[in-house]
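Bug: token stream looks shifted between consecutive jobs. Job 1:
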Amino acid sequence: MKTFKLISLQLVKKEEWYDVPLVDGLIINKEDDHHSWLIEGYVDKSFYDIFHEASKEEKELLVQVVISKKENEPAPFKVKIRSLQTFDNHISVLLEGTLKRSKNQYAELLLDSLIQRGLSGDELMNEFRNGMVRKPRFNQTK
């Protein structure tokens, strides 16, 4: 197993990505035959209802996380909630799931979003280069 710092967490709800501000978090590559990952986020208690509902229904969630450094590109996962614990003002949510795409697809998703915005030529190239550095997040549920 390998453990990494969780930098950011987003989840998709009704086709929209929502930031889940982290107080702290970690992500573990279990390196097992199922390619499983564990994601633990320590977040504000205001997110309890969202995670509790998904847990009750045993719903799979789409999340995307940034691992280790804020410059790293977001990695999308399909996860289920394995544990949800409440504290005074925070909750700890433990997610288990699998990575959903390779790194090369991020460039394709970025390029597609820029083309959809109508960019071409030098403007497209400049925005693409900037986007690969900034790593903007956008809806990847298509």
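Job 2, same session, no restart:
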Amino acid sequence: MREERSFRGISQRLARHYLENLGGEVESDDRVVGDDWEATLSAEKVSVGASLTLTEVTVVFEGDEETLEPLIEKFAQKAMRAGG
């Protein structure tokens, strides 16, 4: 299974930290690997309105559907709390 999600208002570093807390091991700045899953991270600045920009982190999760569904949900809850 492959699932791509984007989160605004968090940094790539913080996203990597959350994935580590969910059992992943950091392989590089943009890659975290866990048991039966892996996540690739990227970040870019996006415009929100006329004069505001936010960081948008995109995470591509890959792995077993049974493993990914709860992992993505837990990650999303942490990211949404952090991102406001």
